[in-house]
Inverse folding.
């Protein structure tokens, strides 16, 4: 598997291919989350939500304490099953039902990949501008294609290379962000803003922290832990995965919130990650832009690896490497379009915020099903796509699917992602923009109640699964 293109897809990882230790997950997730996007989310809490630094710090801690245990819990099944998170979802949703999850997860990662590539392009453009090179027309397309080709390498080479790259990247980025903090913190004015007295605003800000971090990474949890030996400690697997994301998110989002309190000229928009050099020494501008590019290319490598696996779960029967290449081409097309549209990036952020409509109900159903079956799965049955033990009725296990769809409906009714405001959200306040984003708690509560209420349906599905196993 090392030194060549990895061909492993969603099929079960065999025992002789297992390697590594749970603590390796810390470096994977730390390397993935230690980038300028994380800093930007912290700045948005102050600049867009109007929180004080103290309020932002409270939201950062609370949001990440809620979010990253979700990544921990979805990572635990990897060593036990040897397959991906979306494949394990077949146990709760059915083989065909899980295809919906695969498509939604793929779309989510495509959005993040495109957003990352767009920002990488802008960082590259800024670097070239400092050298007196202006990008126009065909040159823009050429640069986008080259950058996409670079980010394609790691996910093609596979899990082992990706894990190694993230380990060393974590060390480099840690030093770089310590330097960045040393430059920003002396300029910060934490007491400059009184903040907000709106509980609704605090709830919406907390939702942003949750969905931008651990909740959006949860569908990829088992994708990377599945290569660990089957006897790996579940506690160690979950703890190292969660800490790898939690620690960078808390520290870098706090740095972003502090950065947002720095006095800057009116034309500088600190919610834009590439505006950071405006408050730094000119000597740090070039290293900063390089840091942005490398960090986001690595993050996109993680996303591309997972998105290829998710599309296989959706029923696309082509090698993972082909899907990775297709994803890259889609990202190139989106990026080329986006650099001509000034409003596109804000729309992309709104898309990311709306992901909680699906993510909150999905993770609720996934984890409740895991608890209900005491963490045990018919392993070979997870890989069967037609009339296997998790087939259900017509390929759908309706106890889980009804809970997922019902939760998504309730989540949509209470959402407020800026561009999408749910009808019940509008009833809470006169001004929709001031309404809270309750999509996460609404989705969690609704999907949990529906799942628990459908226990008789689940018992019939379990009986059918036992009958299939006995007959086999």
């Amino acid at each position: 598997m090392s030194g060549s293109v990895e061909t492993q897809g969603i099929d079960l990882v065999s025992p002789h291919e297992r390697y590594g230790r749970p603590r390796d997950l810390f470096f994977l997730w730390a390397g993935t989350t230690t980038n300028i996007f994380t800093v930007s989310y912290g700045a948005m809490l102050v600049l867009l939500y109007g929180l004080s630094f103290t309020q932002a710090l409270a939201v950062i801690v609370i949001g990440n304490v809620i979010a990253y245990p979700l990544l921990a819990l979805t990572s635990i099944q990897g060593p036990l099953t040897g397959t991906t998170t979306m494949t394990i979802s077949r146990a709760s949703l059915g083989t065909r039902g899980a295809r919906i999850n695969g498509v939604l997860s793929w779309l989510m990662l495509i959005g993040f990949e495109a957003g990352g590539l767009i920002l990488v392009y802008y960082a590259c453009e800024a670097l070239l501008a400092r050298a007196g090179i202006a990008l126009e027309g065909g040159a823009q397309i050429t640069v986008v294609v080259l950058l996409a080709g670079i980010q394609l390498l790691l996910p093609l080479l596979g899990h082992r290379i990706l894990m190694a790259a993230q380990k060393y990247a974590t060390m480099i980025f840690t030093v770089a962000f310590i330097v960045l903090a040393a430059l920003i913190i002396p300029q910060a004015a934490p007491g400059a803003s009184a903040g907000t007295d709106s509980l609704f605003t605090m709830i919406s800000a907390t939702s942003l922290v949750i969905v931008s971090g651990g909740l959006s990474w949860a569908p990829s949890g088992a994708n990377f832990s599945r290569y660990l030996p089957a006897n790996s400690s579940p506690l160690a697997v979950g703890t190292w995965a969660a800490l790898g994301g939690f620690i960078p998110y808390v520290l870098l989002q706090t740095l972003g919130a502090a950065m947002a309190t720095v006095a800057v000229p009116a034309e500088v928009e600190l919610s834009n990650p590439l505006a950071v050099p405006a408050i730094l020494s000119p000597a740090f501008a070039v290293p900063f832009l390089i840091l942005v590019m490398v960090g986001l290319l690595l993050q996109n490598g993680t996303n591309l690896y997972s998105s290829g696996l998710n599309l296989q779960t959706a029923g696309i029967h082509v090698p993972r490497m082909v899907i990775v290449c297709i994803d890259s081409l889609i990202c190139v097309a989106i990026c080329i379009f986006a650099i001509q549209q000034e409003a596109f990036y804000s729309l992309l952020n709104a898309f990311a915020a709306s992901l909680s409509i699906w993510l909150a109900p999905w993770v609720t159903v996934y984890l409740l099903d895991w608890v209900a079956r005491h963490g045990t799965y018919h392993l070979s049955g997870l890989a069967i796509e037609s009339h296997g033990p998790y087939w259900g009725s017509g390929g759908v296990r309706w106890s889980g699917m009804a809970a997922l769809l019902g939760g998504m409906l309730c989540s949509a009714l209470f959402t407020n992602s800026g561009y999408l405001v749910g009808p019940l959200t509008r009833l809470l306040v006169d001004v929709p923009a001031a309404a809270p984003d309750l999509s996460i708690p609404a989705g969690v509560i609704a999907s949990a109640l529906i799942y628990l209420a459908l226990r008789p349906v689940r018992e019939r599905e379990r009986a059918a699964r036992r009958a299939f196993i006995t007959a086999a």
Remarks:
- The chain has 21 helices and no strands.
- The domain at 15-344 is CATH 1.10.4160.10 (Hydantoin permease).
- The longest helix spans residues 97-130.
